Amino acid sequence: MTLRVPKLKGAVFESAVIERYRRREQSVEEALIDMYLAGVSTRQVDDISRLLWGERMPSQTLSDKLKRVYEDIDQWRNRPLAAHSYPYLFVDGVWHKRTWGGSVENVSVLVAIGVDDTGHREVVGVAEGMKEDKASWEQFVRSMIERGLRGVRLVVGDRCAGLVSTVNSMLPDARYQRCMVHFMRNVLSKVSHKHAAWAASALKAVFAMESRQAALEKAEQVATEMWSPRG
């Protein structure tokens, strides 16, 4: 069958239908890649692609797209940091479950969030597969320093001895502050369920004070109430 396509002089014909289909196809591919990165097995990705397309996504197509994704991630993780100073640095180790070779294992991810002079927050460091020991923290902090991390005055984290030691040795101009969230968790783990709500409220009241002196006075008040007989 021969179709005659109407044409306008000086204009190029573009099919809106094909463009819509191309965008839809790209969205489906991106969704399949997200599922794979989230831990969905290759077989499940194949099953879903068959359901959506009627055929499986070619393995080479998936491989090529994942390669580009990993390249973008590596470029972001290794980007220079010298353009800004980060007076405040929040660091922590987060544990996630990862599927690898058909088995599920726990993997630690070290994360650092920097706050610049304007108050803007951004993730400045991410390292996977490390332990929360001194050697891992040293390697993590060293990588950020080599990328240009500067101007750190305060580091906030948990009570990990390896982290505290690393900050003292590698960021000597910075002070270390224990994370309030971790501190509250540690305290509440020692409080009976009956008094947990009161203890949490009391601690939050101390942290809400706007000056050091007011916080110390509030802490004394809380301590006095804590030792008083409670029902």
UniProtKB/TrEMBL annotation:
InterPro entries: Transposase_mutator (IPR001207). Pfam families: Transposase_mut. Keywords: DNA recombination, DNA-binding, Transposable element, Transposition. GO terms for molecular function: DNA binding; transposase activity. GO terms for biological process: DNA transposition. Required for the transposition of the insertion element. Belongs to the transposase mutator family. This is Mutator family transposase.
